[in-house]
Amino acid sequence: xxxxxxxxxxxxxxxxxxxxxxxxxxxxLIAQPAHVLLERNYMFILVLLLWLLWGFSTNNNSFxxxxxxxxxxxxxIKIIRSxxxxxxxxxxxxxxxxxxxxxxxxxxxxxxxxxFLISLRVILFKEFFFSxxxxxxxxxxxxIVGTGHTAASFMEILKDDPSLGYKFEGxxxxxxxxxxMGKDFKIFCSVSELEPMVKKHDIDEIVIxxxxxxxxxxxxxxKISNRNAVRAHLIPDFFKxxxxxxxxxxxxxxxxxxxxxxxxxxxxWRIVKRAFDIAVSFLSLTLICSWLFTFIAVIHWLTAKxxxxxxxxxxxxxxxxxxxxxxxxxxPGISNVFVSxxxxxxxxxxxxxxxxxxxxxxxxxxxxVFLGDMSVVGPRPHAVAFNNDYREFVEEIELRNxxxxxxxxxxxVHGLRGDAGDKEENKALIKKRIEYDIWYLENWSFWLDxxxxxxxxxxxxxxxxxxx
Length: 468
What we know:
The chain is of the alpha/beta class. The chain has helices at residues 3-31, 34-39, 43-60, 72-97, 104-133, 149-160, 194-201, 215-227, 267-303, 341-347, 350-358, 365-371, 384-391, 423-443, 446-462, and strands spanning 140-145, 166-173, 187-190, 205-208, 231-234, 247-251, 254-258, 309-315, 321-327, 375-377, 406-408. Strand 10, helix 13 and strand 11 (406-408) form a beta-alpha-beta unit.
């Protein structure tokens, strides 16, 4: 359906590859004379490497997806990320070939030129594309067969994204009571009038969005579209059961629709995430925790009773229990009790308040990360008692256990931490938090993890993130 859009995407990839090549040679010729570049034939291999890195990074951050409707600031961040990958690739290549002439000046020039030229291309293309959309002659006429919820939802997508390049002509009524779509409800015709109306109005595309079993009606509409060379598209009736990140694959000769896509199901991404977790936890434990743990333990013994560590069973990946480590912030003997948020506040020790405000109470979980029970980033692990309570009003709660729990997460950097005092308010908070957890597992990327870590540090420094 969006073949034009896909064609534009391929064109933009080609243009950007040419821009990368131009930026490379411009930076190389400014940094050193032309004969120096010609004498170093291996530098041309670097051009091919940069093409591959650009393809990898832009595919990973979906740079060419919905490039029409995204704001420039949103795309600029993705440009910076992709250029950063390019610079890392150059540094690695120069180190491997022991290049001494093409170094600091070349890398700086290449990074600046690529960022500027790609950004300029994005701005110019958006101006060109939207100027074309303003001309109605460039829009494709589309009708939707159906008046149910699926048809109404699809119409909203067309209305919200004019960059798709369609002019919505109206709904084709299949002969039953229409779904209440408010003032935007626009009837094109009935199914019995479809063929002459398609010819009369020069309809380009038909979307069949029928709710329920309408096999014979669907076949009739497809025959009409074929006779009139009108492109037809089917929206499956089970669309409403799918998440926004569903996946279609082939199992033999059968198409299989997976309800939600999970990037961390791919083994190479699990390896990347695990390698990052090992590196971060090892460096933290050796460089920071080795002396800070002792310091915190001594202060705890001087100000409170019991062990400085609090160990509790938490729910991990696939619902397995693991022993979660934290610094003790409450009075001994009552931290394992399931009580309300207000009652827990009264149990916190003075030093515990400092640990929570600074988030240092979570630091021992680096041990869990190193052991493989947790990840640096992921949904926060629930205590068993809390999880059982939340399950009563959140059906999707077990979905968050498809990935490892984390020290920080997407929900936490959006302020969805701890519990609220009011029961109904707390239910709404928990539902929202789990919604963010599920979004994370459906949209995971390595760069998303980096973004969450940076946001976490920023909020800790700004005093906006406090442990609970």
